[in-house]
Amino acid sequence: MPRPIADGPEPQYEKVVSGYETFHHKDRFGTDWGGELAEFSLAYETWGELSPARDNAILLHTGLSSSSHVRSQPKNTHDGWWEAFVGPGRPVDTDRFFVICSNLLGGCYGSTGPSSTSPKTGEPYATDFPILTVNDMVRAQLLLLDHLGVERLHATVGSSLGGMQSLQLAAVAPERAARVVSISAATRSYPQSIAMRFVQRQAVMLDPDWQGGRYYGASFPHRGQKVAREIGTTTYRSGPEWQERFGRERIGDGVPTLDEDFSIEGYLVHQGEKFCLQYDPNSYLYISKAMDLFDVTAPGADGRPLIDNITVPALVIGVSSDILFPSWQQREVAERIEANGAEVTFVEIDGYYGHDTFMIDLERVGEPLRVHLEA
User: Fold this and answer.
1) Which of 50, 242, 278, 333 could form a disulfide with 98 if both were Cys (CB 3.0 to 4.6 A apart)?
2) 177-218: pLDDT as tens digits
3) Nearest to 345 by CA among 308, 322, 320, 370
4) Which of 322, 327, 361, 372 is catalytic?
5) In b/e form, how buried is each residue of 205-238, taking b as 16+ CB within 10 angstroms?
């Protein structure tokens, strides 16, 4: 008998439309590739209290499709995407730390992105939105920290795309972070992950309903977005988990069809359909492209690789079963920072859930995180 498609631990994602605060930057914001936003907003949430010395703040960076809602709170009591990791007595202890999480610039959960209204036209930006980089996202977050009165973070913390942001912040503004955590990320995007994201974007853009990105108020490119997420899901989880969870089980006992037939196929369809109800396709395109462009080994203004600026204590975590960001890429992160003379802790987890291990494995991800933050 086939198992239910939802049988097994899954990350907690939610279409967040309220319950957050909004930081509004009223001035021009130039982007790295020559674009410009006349203004922008970032949705953010906080937990805990900022200490009188303002030295206990932790900035949590999100992955591609996460919102600012990392933990339940009075304005939004639903579980957050890192609910088990953040809170009183948790690895990111809100009894000790003031925790900040913002939705990405370019996102669709309260921050300015392609679906936002352009002040110049009164219409959604759509594909008039400028190409973004991870550095653009981090520069917007630094402006948020200025707004909150946080000059120096106790730690910058992130996983996946969030791990890229964490490294970028520590590299371009080393004076703003006392320690860094990068989980399941890399010093730069490699061809394999770029290729995977390219195919996902093609699936969206080849959907006739995408209409060059100008689908707002018209037909939504549901089919392309669904296929894109199905492809993405195959990179987020592991072979070992799927072998045990699904094996070769079929959905029914009848004659095989050319469509959904195996349980694993039904699972992918379920994930794709669910994502289509939550996320804006254009945000998906822009943010995944920013991941492709990421390279913290690129030279900075002084000609030296940006990563050479990271000299604070660092925790780097990789997962052996991760095919999107293989663990050798996290080992490279650790070695590059250690070469700067920094104290580095590298942890490789023999993970069961692939790339999504950082969302699920509280014990093996949470414990080294707790130790690093409380050191």
Assistant:
1) 50
2) 999 999 999 999 999 999 999 999 999 999 999 999 999 999
3) 370
4) 322
5) bebeebeebebbeeebbbbbbbbbbbbbbbbbbb
Alpha carbons 292 and 164: distance in angstroms, whole number? 11
- The one-letter amino acid at 371: V
Contact 296, 187 (CB under 8 A): yes
Q: Under a CB-based contact definition with an 8 Å cutoff, are residues 195 and 300 in contact?
A: no
pLDDT confidence of residue 182: 98
Tens-digit pLDDT profile for residues 224-243: 999 999 999 999 998 889 99
Of residues 25, 61, 69, 355, which has the active-site annotation?
355
| Cα 160 to Cα 254: distance, rounded to the nearest angstrom | 41
Alpha carbons 23 and 31: distance in angstroms, whole number? 18
Q: Which of 67, 111, 160, 193 is catalytic?
A: 160
* Domains located in the chain, CATH noted: 21-374 (3.40.50.1820)
DSSP class of 149: T
The pair of structure tokens assigned to 293 is 């462009």
The per-residue pLDDT for 160 is 97
Query: Rounded to an integer, what distance in angstroms lies between the CA atom of residue 174 and that of residue 155?
Result: 11
- Cβ atoms within 10 Å, residue 88: 10
Beta bridge partners of 100: 46, 59
**DSSP codes, 10-71:** --------SS-EEEEE-S-EE-TTS-EES-EEEEEEEES---TTS--EEEEEP-TT--S-SS
CA atoms within a 13 Å half-sphere pointing along the CA-CB vector of 217:
7
Among 177, 131, 154, 134, residue whose Cα is nearest residue 297:
134
Average pLDDT for residues 15-38, to the nearest whole number? 95
Is 80 exceeded by the pLDDT of residue 6? no
Residues 6+ apart with CB under 8 A from 320: 327, 348, 349, 350, 351
315 token code pair: 């925790």
Strands 29-30 and 180-183: unpaired
Does residue 160 have an active-site annotation? yes
Q: Which residue has the tokens 């990421």?
A: 294
